[in-house]
Amino acid sequence: MESKLSFNFKTNQEILKLIGFIDRFKGRWTQVEGKGSRYLNELRLIATIESIGSSTRIEGSKMSNEDVEDFVNAIKISSFKSRDEQEVFGYYDTLNLILESYESISLSENHIHHLHKTLLSKSSKDKRHRGKYKQLSNKVVANYPNGKQKVIFNTTEIHLVNQEMEAAIKWTTSAIKNEETHPLIAIAVFIYEFLSIHPYQDGNGRLSRLITTLLLLQSNYDFVQYASVEYEIEKQKKEYYKALMAGQKNRYSKREKIDKWMLFFLNTLKKTIVKLESNYEQIKDKKSYLNTRQSDVLNFIKKNEPIKISDLTNALDAYTPYILKKDMKYLVDEGLIKRIGKGKATTYIFNQ
C-alpha cells in the first residue's frame, strides 16, 4: 500500500491543505450540531434525496431528485413500476440503515455483504447474487444520458476477490484504529480498492458511496449526513472515472499511484462542505423551515386537533406512515405541536 501512497511534494502539500480545511469545518460543524439547530432535519432530508438521486443516476437511473422525493414520500413496498424505483428504494433503505446504525456496523465482510443485500433487496434481477461476491467477470462501465456505455477498466479476477477484500479491510481497519494514517486517507484508499476489486456482480458503485458515508460517520465526520457527497460526484462524473483510471491502469505494478484519486476524493469533500454551508445559510434565511409535507401535517393538526397518528395517516394517505411519524416527531421537537398522553391514547395538539 505504501507505494500507492508515495506522492510527490506538491501533491502531499495539497493533500495536507485539503485535510486541514475539512478537519477545521468538522470542528465548526460539531458546534452547530451541539446547539440542536432546528434546521438540521431539513438539511438531512435535502441531502438524503440528493444522495439517492445522484448515486443511482451515476449508474444509469433516469429519476430526477423531484421524482425520487415523490417516490420516497409515497413508497408502496409491494409494488415498483421500474428497475429505477427498485434501485432508489434499495439506496433509500440502505442509507437510512447506515444513518441510524453506523456505530454498530463494522467494516467487515459480513456487514458489507448485508449492506449489499439490503441495497439490492427489491431488485428482482439481482436476487441470485445479493450479498455474495461475483461469480462472473465484470468490468466497470460508465453509463451516459444518451444511452451509450464505455468500458472504464477491468476488475479483479474472481478467484482473487476474497483475499483482496480481506487485505483491504484489514489494512483500513488497522490504519484507522492504530492512527497510522489519517482517517480521510484511509477511507479514500479503501474506496479505491473496493472499486478496483469490484467484488459484486452489480451495485458496486452505489455500495462504495454508501460505505464512504458509513466510514466518514464512524470517523466523526458527522456533517456527511447533512450534505450529499454523491451529488458532487455526479457533477464531476467524468473526473471521477478519470481519477480512478489514473491508478487502475497500472494495477498490480509498482507504478500504481492513487494521487489523482486522493485529490479527487478530498476535493469532493471540500465541495460538499461548501454546498452544505450554502444550504445552511439559505435555510436560516427562510421564514419557514418546514417542507411542503410537514406544512400539510401542521395545517391538518391546526384544523382537527386533538388528533391521533391514525387520523393523520388516514387523512394524508399519499405519504407513508413512517414518513408522517418522523414529521410528527420533528414538529414535537421543534415545539410546534404538543404530545399528550402515552401509548394508544396519545393525542397531538397545535402548540399556540
Please specify the SSE layout and strand pairing.
Elements: H1 9-34, H2 40-58, H3 65-73, H4 83-101, H5 109-119, E1 139-143, E2 149-154, H6 161-177, H7 183-197, H8 204-218, H9 229-235, H10 237-248, H11 259-285, H12 292-304, H13 309-315, H14 321-333, E3 337-340, E4 347-350
Antiparallel strand pairs: 1-2, 3-4
Helix pairs in contact: 1-11, 2-3, 2-4, 2-9, 4-5, 4-8, 5-8, 6-7, 7-8, 7-11, 9-11, 10-11, 12-14
What does this structure look like?
By secondary structure, this protein is mainly α. It has 2 domains: 9-285, Orthogonal Bundle (Fic-like fold); 292-350, Arc Repressor Mutant, subunit A (Orthogonal Bundle). Helix content is 60%, strand content 5%. The strands form 2 sheets. A two-stranded antiparallel sheet has the order 1-2. A hairpin with a 5-residue loop joins strand 1 (139-143) and strand 2. The longest helix is centred in the last third of the chain and has 27 residues, at 259-285. The protein starts with 8 loop residues before the first helix and ends with a strand. The mean pLDDT is 89.
